[in-house]
Amino acid sequence: MTTAKEKYAACIRCNNCRWLPVPKSADQAFICPSIQYGKNFAYSGGGKMITGYALLDGKADYTPEVLDSIYACSVCGGCDVGCKTNNAEIVEPLNSIYELRRQCVENGHVPVALERLLANLRQYGNPQGRPSNERANWCKSLNLPHTSKLGEETLLHVGEAAFHSAQWPGLHFVVQRLQDEGVKFAVGGAEEPDSGALAFDIGDQKLARNLAEKTVAWVKKSGALRLITCSDTAFMAFRSVYPRLGIRLDDVEVLHISQWLAQSAVYVRQPDGLHFNVVTYHDGCRLGRLSEPYIPWNGEWKKMFNSLPVREPDTPIRFGTEGIYEDPRALLASVGTHVVEMERTREFSYCCGAGGGGAEANADFAKQAGLVRLQEALSVGVSTMVTSCGTCANHMNQLAVDAGLPIKVQTLLDHLCQRGANGAVAVSNGDKP
Ligand code: SF4
Ligand code: SF4
């Protein structure tokens, strides 16, 4: 089972990739927002594999309908968790979705809106097509050490939040915490490259490799031993996309900001007037199941009992359980915020539809997915949803406003920053990073 066609053919059409392995209710049984939107097998993880096979076999063409079934999808990996829980590593729909999108790009069949994002990434180094020097705006007033001054122990990577001024207070909060803890760090400002994750998700692996190589060169040039990123998407790239591309950060330790914050400090003193707070937490796919480290495997497929394919040597199966789930929850608890869990959490989280080019390729798909998730949050009786991912927060917050839903969506950093500003006091736990 080594060729793309063989991998596509491994799908047994059991449909388990559309559902949670053990749903708690019929209303929230789907794990795949694509099939819930398209209502046709082609939109499921398995359907995309059959499409990939048919395209390679010349039995299907890249029609608008076929492209919609491929790209009305946020590459969230829910299907992969659903499939592996039932079929172990034999099928791996996520790998096949990456391959199918690579095939689309190679053959020149990419939705126009996604082609625009790729063109912007090529020309400006960001998908929005903003001048690259705008990346430095978030830290202009802070006078921070820059990567051009080499030799700081830690490099702070901010990712797409650099272009969203609403997320700057959260970034400034991070800077304050690093300074409070005495961490010597530098930022990239306008020199920070795009991680390449979006290009990879869309299927342009050549562009993704180019951006990933630029990022690794930037990190290595800085001389930093540790890279802390505020971006869920970039964190996913460092842990699971770069290994797929054979690109390594070598000895540089990579942390998501929630890991560093949870390790470095506890928030214990809450003055009178800081009310106990209740929210729900949305596990964004990219910090969650998609950030589970990917371990490249170059073994052989053998047959057990003359029929069952097995890997030799064996390798761990990626069930999505090794994503970052506990640190954000611990941080919320540390500022007196109680999390009421939704039915679909952690590796079984339901994607909001915004990532992987899903929102740009088909806005109706992303809108439906986001509204489904907001309704799930409302069903547990909260008026605030917190998520680590800025893309999820922007997308669902706008949907909530447009639909007049009584809920707001905050990023984790914004929430910590606001609770801190309202009086919670950060106290070092003594374990200096
Ligand atoms: S991708 Fe996996 S879960 Fe989905 S239909 Fe195929 S074998 Fe079944
Ligand atoms: S990646 Fe997500 S949206 Fe796409 S088919 Fe799989 S579960 Fe559905």
UniProtKB/TrEMBL annotation:
Q: Does the record's keyword annotation contain Metal-binding?
A: yes
- Organism expressing this protein natively: Pseudomonas hefeiensis
- The Cysteine-rich domain covers which part of the protein? 325-396
Provide the taxonomic classification: Bacteria, Pseudomonadati, Pseudomonadota, Gammaproteobacteria, Pseudomonadales
Q: What is this protein called?
A: (Fe-S)-binding protein
Is Transport a UniProt keyword of this protein?
Answer: no
Which Pfam families does this chain map to? CCG (PF02754)
Per UniProt, the keywords (alphabetical) are:
4Fe-4S, Iron, Iron-sulfur, Metal-binding, Oxidoreductase
Q: Which residues cross the membrane?
A: none
